[in-house]
Amino acid sequence: MQNKVIIFSAPSGSGKSTIVNHILSLYPELEFSISATSRAPRGNEQNGREYWFYSEEEFRKMIAEGKFVEYEEVYSGSFYGTLKSELDRIWGKGHVIIFDVDVKGGVNLKKYFREQALSVFIQAPSVSCLRERLLHRGTDSMEAIDKRVAKAAEEIEFARGKFDFILVNEELGKAFDEADKIVGDFIRKDIRPDGK
Ligand code: ADP
Ligand code: 5GP
After folding, report:
1. Alpha-carbon span 151 to 99, nearest angstrom
2. What does residue 181 show for φ and ψ, rounded to 5 degrees?
3. Does residue 120 contact residue 6 with C-beta atoms inside 8 Å?
4. How confident is the model at residue 139 (pLDDT cuts 50, 70, 90)?
5. Is the pLDDT of residue 20 over 90?
6. Ligand nearest to the CA of 77
7. In the beta sheet, which residues pair with residue 8?
8. Distance separating alpha carbons of residues 128 and 54, to the nearest angstrom
9. pLDDT tens for each residue of 56-85
10. Which of 9, 18, 129, 156 to mutate to test the pocket of ligand 1 (most atoms within 8 A of CB)?
């Protein structure tokens, strides 16, 4: 059994959800890792579907109990983390795990899983294009968009040289094809049983 993981990271608005959902629809053997978070559910998000929702106090207790592979305070006061129990749940079915984590989380997961992991950083062609997409998506306040755009520039800088692939999402059809090729090659590739 080759326990593999695929890590997607991107600044908010780069098209990560769009690309990850497309990839999930192509490969039935892929399964999304449901993260834990201390932020409140948004819209019609459900516990155990988009996230496992906890209070900040419960989240901190789980950190102390060693329940996470990695966690980050992605936005001030909002914790997000990858639960060790998700690895057993998904690998137990013989599936490949897909992670959607922030840029620091992506770098940490790649260090943890090494050759077992494919890490992909998705980037919009420019920061101004990313702002346009967030405005067009219409799900965030102007203040939230400003925060996300400011963070994006830092994340792009931080990510440089730390991911297996950088995927520039300019024309969506091309980005889908490129993501499909990268993921398909990785799924078919043999890795050593110890994952090294
Ligand atoms: P993320 O998950 O990275 O925050 P989304 O997948 O929600 O980003 O994409 C942000 C917005 O940009 C969405 O409205 C999406 O439909 C749009 N979008 C994604 N990729 C492209 C693209 N290549 N060209 C134009 N718009 C795009
Ligand atoms: P949102 O609140 O928009 O759902 O997610 C905010 C950010 O948290 C996104 O960048 C997302 O990738 C990141 N995120 C979600 N789950 C995890 C996780 O388990 N670990 C880390 N480090 N980041 C996560």
Report:
1. 20
2. -65, -45
3. yes
4. confident
5. yes
6. 2
7. 100, 120
8. 34
9. 999 999 999 999 999 999 888 899 999 999
10. 18
Q: Which two tokens mark 129?
A: 């294009």
- Alpha-carbon distance 115 to 11, whole Å? 24
Q: Determine which helix (DSSP H) or strand (DSSP E) holds 118, and give its type and residue range.
A: strand 117-123
- CA within 13 Å, CB half, 33: 30
Pick the residue whose CA is nearest to atom 2 on ligand 2. Answer: 39
Give the span between the Cα atoms of 154 and 152, in whole angstroms.
5
> Atom 3, ligand 2: which residue's CA is nearest?
12
Q: How far is CA 46 from CA 21, 42, 73, 125, in A?
A: 17, 9, 21, 32
Domains along the chain? 5-188 (3.40.50.300)
Extract the tokens encoding 174: 């091309």
Q: How far is the CA of 169 from the centre of ligand 1 (A)?
A: 9
pTM of the predicted model, to two decimals? 0.92
